[in-house]
């Protein structure tokens, strides 16, 4: 997958509408998330066929699914975050 394609897909995802300060929630935007993972994967680590744990469900876990991780496990204390991540995975036709 090309970098711009990854950024475009991540740009379609739902973000927190009201982040919970006490949980230190903040979204990682598609520009940063796509470049972080794309650079890491293409320079150092191939996540194809690997199991990825996403602590604090969000953009990076979904990007990992798009970049051929075998499985992405979302872990979050906030049920709303898990729900948003699941909805985004359905929209991207990915398993989360």
TrEMBL record:
<dbReference type="InterPro" id="IPR029063">
    <property type="entry name" value="SAM-dependent_MTases_sf"/>
</dbReference>
<dbReference type="GO" id="GO:0008988">
    <property type="term" value="F:rRNA (adenine-N6-)-methyltransferase activity"/>
</dbReference>
<protein>
    <recommendedName>
        <fullName>Ribosomal protein L11 methyltransferase</fullName>
    </recommendedName>
</protein>
<dbReference type="Pfam" id="PF06325">
    <property type="entry name" value="PrmA"/>
</dbReference>
<dbReference type="InterPro" id="IPR051720">
    <property type="entry name" value="rRNA_MeTrfase/Polyamine_Synth"/>
</dbReference>
């Amino acid at each position: 997958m090309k970098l711009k394609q990854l950024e475009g897909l991540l740009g379609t995802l739902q973000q927190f509408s009201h982040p919970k300060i006490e949980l230190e929630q903040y979204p990682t935007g598609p520009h940063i998330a796509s470049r972080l993972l794309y650079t890491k994967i293409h320079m150092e680590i191939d996540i194809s066929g690997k199991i990825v744990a996403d602590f604090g469900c969000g953009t990076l876990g979904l990007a990992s699914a798009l970049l051929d991780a075998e499985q992405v496990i979302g872990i979050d204390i906030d049920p709303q975050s898990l729900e948003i991540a699941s909805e985004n995975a359905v929209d991207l036709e990915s398993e989360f």
